[in-house]
Amino acid sequence: MLEMRPDCERCGADLPADEGGAFICSFECTFCADCTDALDERCPNCGGELLDRPARVGKALANNPASTERRYKG
């Protein structure tokens, strides 16, 4: 199951689990759309492709909450 990390690792922007706009690699490194564009859709950590992260809504989110651990090191 995806962690659904709450923020962009590059700029710290909030990325709610129940909204679009987040991009992840196969290791779940998470970035916002603006940072993904700036990174040419490649993860700076592993070199993997950054793809749209699916949203988690309703009961799925209530029963499986998103991570609260922020990754932005600012």
TrEMBL record:
Domain of life: Bacteria
Name of protein: DUF1272 domain-containing protein
Organism, scientific name: Sphingomonas kyeonggiensis
